[in-house]
Amino acid sequence: MTGWWVAFAGISRRETLRFVNQRGRFLAALVRPLVWLFIFAAGFRAVLGLSITAPYQTYVLYEVYVTPGLCAMIQLFNGMQSSLSMVYDRETGAMRTLLVSPYPRWFLLASKLVAGVIVSIIQVYTFLLIAWFWGIRPPVAGYLTLLPALLLSGLMLGAMGLFLSSAIRQLENFAGVMNFVIFPMFFASSALYPLWRMRESSVLLHDICALNPFTHSVELIRFALYLQVNWLSLGVVLGCLALFFGGAVLMYDPGRGLGIRRKGG
Amino acid sequence: MTIQALSVQNVSHSFGAFRALDDVSLTVPRGSFTALLGVNGAGKTTLFNLITRLYANRSGVIEVAGHNLRHDSAPALRRLGVVFQSRALDADLTVQQNLMYHAALHGIPRSKARVRVAEVLAQVDLADKAGARVSALSGGQVRRAEISRALIHRPELLLLDEATVGLDVKSRAEVLALTRRLIAEQGVSALWATHILDEIAPTDRLVILHRGRVLFAGVAAQAAPDGNLTRAFLDLTGVPV
User: Fold this and answer.
1) Would residue A189 count as lying in a domain?
2) What is the mean pLDDT of residues B24-35?
3) A-B contacts (CB, under 8 Å)
4) Which domains does chain B have, with CATH numbers?
5) Residue A248 CB contacts under 8 Å (≥ 6 apart), including other chains
6) φ/ψ of residue A6, rounded to 5
7) What is the complex's ipTM, to 2 decimals?
8) What is the pTM of this model?
9) Residue A260 located in a structural domain
10) B68 close to A (CB below 8 A)
11) Using the beta-carbon criterion (under 8 Å), do A2 and B100 form an inter-chain contact?
């Protein structure tokens, strides 16, 4: 068992080192949600009315509503960043070093996934600390109950990134992922507007948002931050996690030869 | 029965309709330097990808130090040290960080790994570069660092896939000499894939791979009794190397 732990710790350490070495990445991960919180939310507060809706017990400011969505956004971008890192590793050859380890491939991929999620959780708590000074103050115990929700949400979004990375053949194709995965997932969700608001505008759009796994990441985080459990979102997140991770393990299986491009003599 | 460092028996592999390897059999005896000679596209990298389990082996049998790669893959992979054709070190990390990462992937605890990193870097004359970022090393130094990475878990068999490609003449000679020294001093075995004839000595074991088939397997001097390996290769394959 010690060897497995050593391998997991080594993979986590490498991800952290890469993250620390890329200071711009940490800054970008924080600036993005803060821009939404400080500028976008301030503008929307004036035009968007929010009725009392679970898990909130009273009327809340738009900044308060949007904060869980921004936490999930950090994890969504981090998951895609991990996906980009996998494609980069494959292009540079570093992926081979990982895959020729004697440990099973599912374990190596899971370790890489968990390591990425740890980084994203650090980012979310840093964001919440800054948001606290901006007046976003959920119950103190909420910061604790949030942790398992962030773990599951991060794993699900990271597994999705892992699955996507097996299908992306070149770094250049990553722009397509941004346009066709990240932005639609983020905007067609409950991150920025409540689903009932969406239904007022379009029933179809509401249904799409309700089916979007990212919506359930947001709601899982939102409820956890206010000491509640959204059971439907928990089920969807767990189900999608199993689906995406299972798909990623299958796609990286040596029998399929994916993850490694045919090359050389 | 003698257990070989590597035994490949009747292995074939196809990419769709293209047959990259056709009934390939070869052995690497313990403590030997075996050259795998072939032009680009001969199937060398495909064979390496099968031996390292990057591709699944569906036909034939591959054994590393007696461990079947299909049924007993973990012990087999533990005994392999690999230097890939393309660079596999993380350029943003230091040499030491890269080696520690690789040690962790083989389950070696950090305290032990630190000692091993110092050992293997000394073996490849890179002790003074432990703290240097890989991006700051020369091509020859990167290759030596990759060999040290491959050695850190003390493998029985080194696989080197065109390890000298892209190096200048001096660095090429250094990397080759280093590999031969490791065999002599540590008793590891090496399968050295190349398309450069100068890298093969008459006493080396030689496997000539061409269009996915083994055309010769034996001692290099047997393939070219007159010492002219270039002509022997041309006679066997019909193409100059």
Assistant:
1) yes
2) 95
3) 122
4) 1-79+156-241 (3.40.50.300), 90-154 (no CATH)
5) A109, A159, A162, A163, A165, A166
6) -60, -45
7) 0.83
8) 0.83
9) no
10) no
11) no
